[in-house]
Write a structure and sequence with these properties.
The complex is a heterodimer of chains A (751) and B (411). Chain A is α+β, with helices and mostly antiparallel strands and 751 residues long. Chain A has 33 helices and 17 strands. In chain B, the strands form six sheets. In chain B, strands 1, 2, 5, 6, 7 and 8 form a six-stranded antiparallel beta sheet that branches. Classes of the chains: A alpha+beta (751), B alpha+beta (411).
Chain lengths: 751, 411
């Protein structure tokens, strides 16, 4: 499964909107071996249907007509104050689409054609635009020059006669407020800075053209973003459930989330309007926590009474939102004005957007593999669902998603030199965008995304590691019954196992949520791979099962692995999965960790299976070498081999059994070599029992007793360490048995 | 290889189009009543519902994906609902004769939400193409008389594909619909020069004179001994063609790729050898396979213990000596082959590495040695280098001896 990108779309009073897509230029690696007919859209719609010429012309014409409609619509909607003559846009588009038909080849050429087209038209319409001055310009000025900002400040202060001072400190957040200002005021500002304005105007021309560009050109994975917004905003019947759409060979998975617009929102908006009126009548201390107020205008009184609660709630919202960190600098004295201003902000926003649905969509390249559906399901359950629910929660109680969407969209209305700069800016200012980017980056590198939505919902997201299959299990071989009983997808933990941290404790702590379990912290601090769980139990003074739970937790979150206790008796060989392609980097890293040692020499020592002690050159280097093997295990470079034991009854024993019994089944043993393997020594037939008895009787009574005791383990399911642990033996005991019965016991070394 | 688990069942097929007045609507659907429209006019309410509400499909919810915006047309579109998966290929034909200057239609197949419907993708696409060309050539959909026959066609499609996985429906004198479902396998892995193809089935028996020329040319040389490069040389076929052909065989599971058998090879046992112990049929197969022709076979237990004695660091040559393998009437090559094909034996490759500090220590004498050096970075094993440079492992050993500080990693 290949994750290509994450997109956020929403449905608000402005219609379907594409809010944000990450990464900026999703790279689509199409495997060369794949059959070509299904070659996906890569960069431009125009280039999609290259392979089948039948549809080439058609699709082009569709694209242009489509974007014509939607391009202009988008303008009208998203830049509601900018009155673009729609003719102009469609005109330019038409020309472009003509161009497209002529030269489908190079994207650059097309882009250029856009530029020139737009520029020509822009110049013609310059005058027109002067008259239609856009309030956005103000923001532009604020963004570009600091002195301007001060000027701005005063003008606005006069303008509104309200406590909006702090509002402008937070200017990044409040573009919509600015938009409300009457245009003639702005004109004044403009004229007072005539030199600036002209420059800015010029800049603005460019920006406009680039903006145009953006709207027209803004594509994600070859799809027009407005188109994406449309197809990814399903009807409500498909909302609040898993959404999966496959188009050619892109799969979109998400969980479209409705915001209860019908029940609370409408009433709230009535309430808001009412409250707003009151506010304008200079009623003091109105607060509208829209979501807490349930039904009625009558409740207004209750709200004012419960003002304090609301205050605190707002305080929390403000302090917790990283984008509005400016608020923190404001004195507590001005909290009241703060409050009002927040209300205002809320009102204006409510009026601007009434968010009814948002949808975080993960775009995946489908594969032919059978497990693909499973992987999608995993992604959906473990990442998408959690993320969507988290966002829904924050939206419900703090209108978080809506604020963030407004923020991102307003940032997009600004001008930026190129898309990467815009992306930087969005990622910097919008915590939601930042979170989505974090999730994407973590998922593609197969790591864990740790995000805190709106500083309150703490989420760790990952696609959980899957059960190591029987065959390429690194450490532990599960017996069938263990697999059957094991519905949790992780190997059984045994007291003789140890926990190998995959990162340094400090690193692990960094990724912890705010309130980790103290035992877990302690465990991470004390644990070493040379200690088994049993020993750990006494160090930590808690039950084994509790340690298991903590260990399983760490394994699930990929911070640790379960291994057998590292010891010099263990047999290690280079893992078949070791990635030797990165050997040069590995050598360097190894050199840094263990100066004076040579990775390659140790590697070549590990080619023969033998106890690790024989690799260690001298006794005083033992600790060093144990650390080295820990390093190897962490990096999956080596694997431990275990010895397993099978029981095979030789011809000789069988014959002896016959002689001693004067048996009835002579004929069976006619051929020269007829030893047989007892697959399950604990469930044997009568004759097999006889053989085993005979076999045991060949050795001294003590040894034969031990042999019979260990018999159930000679099935190839239990490795030596397991047998020793279960029967509480010493290695020496087992060694004796193995040597005494060496003709009948088949030993085998594998992982 | 995964066993093929049959094709998923089609729950329904429906034909939908953009009606000039009513907008997107379902014109024909089989089975009847499977699809309902939550907001549609009351004309369909008269019929008795054949399905309970949970089992039906709400057309309005998905209509924008069935009859989509033009940008989505002419692509395969699959949309999932809670219970079903709807696969369609919206087609739009522009022509002034239509009331809205374009005809948009879509023949959709409905599957279980979790069904693996990938083998139907071709069918759905093909049906869209067929209907499109029918419409363009003979106004099949424009003409209401012929359009009505679609109902029967859909019905037959559903029945035949579900019961026989194929269908043939004559439409008129010239045209007919021929469909057959093929299982979809994962793409085969890359094939390397040094790998040896081993046929699992008798390729000679199934091939005939209509087969691909390259395939017929190389089949005689797929004998479990020759590596790809050798096959290309002997059959006098370009090596890339050989690789492609072999990949095709791999795709259909006719062959498996193994290593070159050499007495200097090292193998180790994988835990899955337990499967061999449990499967008596495989044991008999194993004994028959590994015994030298016409000799008395050894017991399975002996073979098993021989397998078990293979391990890291032990070459086949040493292993034969240590275990006196020759006395058991066993064809060692076939013994190893059986293990590798069944997946419980794994080759340990030898990777020569020249550490950085020795990179420049050797004064190069021949060009060949310069050439060798780029393989000494740990990403290339003996088989690969030997095949590339046409050395035997022994010769390569000799050559590499001259490099001071060279290290070997077995993996």
């Amino acid at each position: 499964m290949q994750l290509l990108g994450i997109v956020l779309v929403c449905y608000s009073s402005r219609g379907h909107q594409y809010v944000f897509g990450y990464p900026t230029n999703p790279s689509y690696k199409s495997a060369a071996t794949l059959p070509s007919p299904k070659v996906p859209p890569i960069n431009l719609i125009n280039s999609i249907n290259y392979s089948d010429n039948n549809f080439q012309v058609q699709s082009d014409s569709y694209t242009s007509t489509f974007s014509e409609n939607y391009g202009s619509q988008q303008h009208n909607l998203s830049q509601s104050n900018q009155l673009f003559p729609s003719q102009q846009i469609s005109g330019s588009y038409k020309r472009v689409s003509e161009m497209n038909l002529k030269m489908k080849s190079s994207k650059d050429k097309i882009r250029n054609s856009y530029k020139t087209d737009n520029n020509i038209i822009m110049n013609k319409k310059d005058l027109n635009r002067e008259l239609n001055l856009k309030p956005n310009l103000i923001n532009k000025m604020k963004e570009t020059s600091i002195p301007n900002k001060n000027m701005q400040f005063t003008t606005n202060n006069k303008l509104n006669n309200t406590n909006e001072i702090s509002n402008y400190r937070n200017h990044n957040n409040n573009l919509h407020n600015n938009n409300i200002q009457p245009p003639n005021r702005l004109k004044k500002t403009n004229s007072s800075h005539s030199t600036h304005t002209s420059i800015i105007n010029e800049g603005r021309n460019n920006t406009n053209s680039t903006n145009n560009h953006h709207n027209q050109q803004e594509k994600f994975l070859g799809y027009d973003t407005q188109f994406l917004a449309d197809i990814l905003s399903p009807k409500s019947a498909l909302c609040d459930q898993k959404f999966q759409l496959t188009i050619n060979n892109l799969t979109f998975v998400g969980h479209p989330t409705l915001i209860n617009s019908d029940s609370t929102h409408q009433k709230n908006s009535i309430l808001n309007r009412y409250l707003k009126k009151k506010f304008e009548k200079n009623m003091n201390n109105i607060s509208s926590n829209s979501n807490s107020s349930n039904n009625n205008i009558n409740q207004y009184n209750i709200i004012t009474k419960s003002d304090k609660i609301n205050n605190t709630r707002y305080a929390h919202l403000m302090s917790s939102s990283p984008t509005s960190s400016h608020y923190n600098s404001i004195d507590t004295d001005s909290a009241g004005s703060d409050e009002e201003e927040t209300n205002k902000k809320m009102f204006s926003k409510k009026d601007a957007t009434n968010l009814t649905m948002f949808h975080v969509v993960f775009i995946i390249k489908p594969s032919d593999e059978k497990s693909f559906d499973n992987e999608i399901e995993k992604l959906y359950k473990n990442v998408i669902l959690k993320l969507s629910h988290g966002l829904q929660h924050e939206q419900r109680y703090r209108s978080y998603v809506m604020q963030q969407i407004d923020l991102i969209l307003s940032l997009k209305d600004e001008s930026y030199e190129d898309s990467s700069q815009l992306m930087d800016c969005i990622l910097h200012q919008s915590s939601l965008a930042h979170d989505l980017a974090t999730v994407y980056d973590a998922l593609i590198s197969n790591k864990i995304a740790h995000i805190v939505i709106n500083n309150s919902v703490d989420l760790s997201l990952q696609i959980p590691p899957s059960l190591p299959s029987f065959e390429d299990n690194d450490e532990i071989i599960l017996s069938e019954e263990q697999i059957l009983n094991n519905d949790a997808s992780f190997p059984t933990l045994r007291p003789y196992h140890a926990l190998l941290l995959l990162e340094d404790p400090e690193e692990i702590f960094k990724s912890f949520p705010k309130d980790p379990s103290p035992t877990l912290v302690e465990l991470i601090q004390v644990v070493t791979p040379m200690q088994c769980f049993e020993e750990l139990q006494s160090i930590l003074d808690c039950s084994l099962s509790h340690i298991y739970k903590l260990a399983a937790h760490l394994v699930y979150w990929r911070k640790a692995r379960i291994i057998d206790v590292i010891s010099i008796r263990n047999v290690y060989v280079i893992s078949p999965n070791a990635n030797l392609d990165i050997l040069p980097e590995l050598c360097k890293d190894f050199e840094n960790h263990f100066p004076g040692t040579d990775l390659l020499s140790i590697f070549s020592e590990l080619s023969i299976p033998r106890p690790f002690s024989s690799v260690i050159p001298s006794k005083d280097q033992r600790t060093l070498y144990l650390e080295i093997i820990t390093y190897f295990l962490r990096h999956n470079l080596v694997t431990q081999l275990h010895m397993y034991i099978y029981l095979s009854i030789s011809q000789e024993i069988k014959k002896r059994t016959i002689y001693s019994q004067s048996s009835t089944e002579n004929e069976e043993f006619s051929s020269s070599d007829n030893s047989s393997i007892i697959l399950n020594p604990s469930e044997t037939s009568d004759i097999e029992n006889e053989w085993i008895k005979m076999l045991a009787s060949t050795q001294s009574p003590a040894e034969s007793a031990l042999f019979l005791r260990l018999l159930p383990y000679f099935t190839g399911k239990y490795h030596v360490e397991e047998i020793i642990f279960r029967e509480n033996l010493t290695r020496k005991d087992l060694k004796i048995i193995l040597s005494k019965f060496r003709n009948e016991l088949i030993t085998i070394l594998h992982q | 290889m995964d066993l093929f688990q049959g094709f998923p069942k089609i729950h329904a097929i429906f034909f939908s189009e953009f009606h000039p007045i009513q907008g997107p609507k379902v014109t024909y659907a089989i089975p009847d009543g499977f699809i309902y429209s939550s907001s549609s006019s009351t004309n369909s309410n008269t019929q008795i519902p054949l399905f309970c509400k949970e089992e039906t499909l709400d057309f309005d919810a998905i209509s924008e994906y069935v009859i989509p915006k033009p940008e989505l047309c002419n692509r395969l579109v699959i949309i999932g609902t809670t219970k079903y998966k709807v696969m369609g290929y919206p087609v739009s034909i522009e022509n002034p004769k239509y009331k809205r200057n374009a005809l948009i239609f879509n023949l959709c197949f409905v599957f279980d939400n979790h069904a693996d419907s990938s083998s139907y993708e071709q069918i759905v696409t093909k049906m869209a193409f067929i209907l499109k060309s029918l419409e363009i050539e003979s106004n099949f959909l424009y003409n209401s008389a012929t359009k009505k026959s679609l109902q029967n066609i859909i019905e037959q499609l559903l029945e035949d594909l579900n019961s026989y996985s194929e269908c043939q429906i004559p439409i008129n004198e010239i045209n007919s619909i021929n469909l057959k479902l093929f299982p979809k396998y994962p793409n085969p892995e890359e094939v390397h020069d040094y790998q040896v193809p081993v046929s699992i089935i008798n390729l000679n028996n199934i091939s005939d004179k209509y087969w691909d020329l390259t395939a017929r040319r190389i089949i005689p040389y797929i004998n479990g001994v020759y590596p790809i490069k050798r096959i290309a040389e002997i059959a006098d076929v370009d090596i890339t063609l050989v690789k492609i052909t072999v990949q095709h065989f791999l795709y259909y599971g006719c062959i498996k790729m193994v290593d070159i058998f050499q007495f200097s090879n090292i193998y180790y046992i994988k835990p899955s050898i337990r499967n061999l112990l449990k499967d008596e049929e495989m044991q008999i197969q194993c004994v028959e396979f590994v015994v030298k022709q016409g000799r008395i076979p050894p017991s399975f237990a002996k073979i098993f213990s021989l397998y078990c004695s293979l391990k890291h660091g032990l070459t086949i040559k040493e292993w034969i000596k240590e275990n006196n393998v020759i006395s058991y009437n066993i064809d060692v090559r076939r013994l190893i082959l059986f293990g590798v094909i069944k997946g419980f034996l794994q080759r340990v490759h030898k990777y020569p590495i020249l550490p950085n500090q020795y990179q420049n220590s050797l004064i190069e004498k021949s060009e060949n040695e310069q050439f060798i050096k780029k393989y000494l970075n740990g990403s290339h094993h003996y088989d690969e280098i030997c095949t590339k440079l046409s050395y035997s492992p022994k010769e390569l050993d000799e050559v590499l001896k001259r490099y001071p500080g060279i290290k070997f990693i077995w993996k």
